[in-house]
UniProtKB/TrEMBL annotation:
InterPro entries in alphabetical order: BchE-like (IPR051198), CHP04072_B12-bd/rSAM (IPR023969), Cobalamin-bd (IPR006158), Elp3/MiaA/NifB-like_rSAM (IPR006638), Methyltransferase_Class_B (IPR034466), rSAM (IPR007197), rSAM_horseshoe (IPR023404), rSAM_sf (IPR058240)
GO MF entries: 4 iron, 4 sulfur cluster binding; catalytic activity; cobalamin binding; metal ion binding
Alphabetical keyword list: Iron, Iron-sulfur, Metal-binding, S-adenosyl-L-methionine
Organism encoding this protein: Victivallis vadensis
Span of domain B12-binding: 1-149
Domain of life of the source: Bacteria
Listed name of the protein: Radical SAM protein
Stretches assigned to the Radical SAM core domain: 172-395
């Protein structure tokens, strides 16, 4: 069966991201014997992509079309226009004008509100959550001439398929960011109040085959030798220590490709960060999310801000770049904790902190129940309209002004969160690793 898979994302804030989920589904479908073509509108832009995809659809004549929706919005309460879902819907509707083939929707953004988005777009099928098994089964049924009942399908994948990286698409993202993503496991054991990872992937940690992951890393090193890997696991250094065999194998095989990923300061042991750095870790997205002990507790985080300080200090000592994302306004937040959080983030400089005002409310995250109890959720809210949580007693405008004043003049604390996107895009286009090496050589 000829199957066209398309991304539907134009968001390049803070920088464009390779559509890894689409390539994972492509790998699963190709392994099942289907002829798969991947398309990404991002390199062409929201207008010019139409001509390109129309040519490809005419040449390929797909019998099934799959579309991945990555984001609903940019989770910035101060943004003028943050509803990214509208661009995705436009892509889907345009694709439907090009071919009569049935359509399957999927992806992390889609999976948050699958029934609503399916209704909004008019697509026949949707797959919520991980998609390898469900998409392959739907494609097999359609190839046999069957017509499965339209609607949303959910099925836990028996095996995590290796991605079928598109050289064309990866080449674009490598040129823009020098970053190639890879996933080694699914699941998140934590229960953070704002997060939908457990809903999308579950709490149980499920690992990809280690040798398979190492082969992917070797291929990336071979095809894009100056790329930085991005481990997109919900948390790389999970508390069950599933990551340790990978780190040790990379060191043992001298497969020390520069990498970054989501790292938690929780439950670190002596030597953990050193071994990660030895395996190639050059930067981290440190999962802090709140800036005081009171608000860390309010979000259900499993560590204190002192642990954040110690972790940042060790990472910086190892010449590992640190970026934290921090949300102000969550449960337990007061004007006093906002001021405390600003001081705390200034203390961990030169670690970078990206600050957000308010927390996006999403179904499937515990915070939505808190928001409902506090009367912050309208009865007709469907999840697609942006809704941001602020703790009782907080005025969003006052919090905004406190953050502007508190971070004024700081090179390392970024607020509003999109205010330095251009700088970050330029860094990645040059290559973070190259820039880091130049800085280390000067020192």
């Amino acid at each position: 069966m000829r199957i066209l898979l398309s991304a539907a994302n134009f968001c390049s804030d803070p920088y464009p991201v390779y559509p890894l989920g689409m390539s994972v589904i492509a790998g699963a479908l190709a392994a099942a014997g289907h002829e798969v073509e991947q398309f990404d509108p991002m390199p062409f832009g929201p207008e010019k992509y139409r001509e390109e995809v129309a040519k490809r659809v005419a040449a390929f004549r797909p019998e099934l079309i799959g579309v991945s929706i990555r984001n609903l919005d940019n989770i910035d309460s101060r943004a003028d226009d943050d509803e990214l879902i509208r661009d995705s819907v436009k892509v889907i509707r345009f694709l439907r004008t090009l071919a009569a083939a049935p359509m399957i929707l999927g992806g992390p953004g889609y999976s948050l509100y699958p029934e609503r988005i399916l209704e909004l777009t008019g697509a026949e099928y949707g797959v919520a959550g991980e998609g390898e098994s469900a998409v392959v089964e739907l494609a097999a049924a359609l190839a046999r001439g069957e017509r499965p009942a339209p609607g949303v399908y959910r099925k836990k994948s028996e095996r995590q398929a290796p991605p079928l990286y598109s050289p064309e698409i990866a080449g674009f993202y490598h040129g823009e960011t020098h970053i190639i993503p890879i996933q080694t496991k699914r699941g998140c054991p934590f229960r953070c109040a704002y997060c939908t990872y457990p809903m999308l992937e579950g709490h149980e940690m499920r690992l990809r085959d280690l040798d398979e992951v190492l082969r992917d890393i070797e291929r990336i090193r071979s095809e894009w030798p100056d790329a930085m890997l991005y481990f997109v696991d919900a948390v790389f250094n999970d508390p069950g220590r599933c990551y340790v065999p990978l780190v040790e194998a990379m060191i043992e095989r001298r497969l020390t490709v520069p990498w970054t990923g989501f790292v938690t300061p929780a439950r670190l042991r002596d030597g953990d960060l050193e071994r990660m750095a030895e395996s190639g870790m050059v930067a981290v997205d440190l999962g802090v999310d709140a800036a005081s002990d009171a608000t860390l507790a309010g979000l259900g985080k499993a560590f204190s801000f002192d642990e954040v300080r110690r972790c940042c200090g060790k990472l910086l000592e190892l010449n590992v770049g640190v970026t934290t994302s921090v949300m102000f306004g969550g449960p337990g937040e007061t004007y006093e904790t906002v001021a405390e959080g600003i001081r705390n983030l200034r203390e961990i400089e030169p670690a970078y902190s990206i600050a957000f005002s308010g927390i996006r409310v999403l179904d499937g995250a515990p915070l939505v129940d808190v928001a409902r109890r506090e009367g912050k959720v309208a009865p007709d809210w469907d999840g697609l309209g942006s809704l941001y949580y602020f703790a009782p007693g907080l005025d969003p405008d006052r919090v905004h002004e406190m953050l502007l004043e508190g971070f004024k003049g700081s090179r390392f604390c970024v607020y509003p969160p999109g205010s330095r996107n251009r700088d970050l895009q330029m860094i990645h286009k040059f290559g973070y690793v190259k820039l880091r090496n130049l800085q280390l050589a000067r020192n």
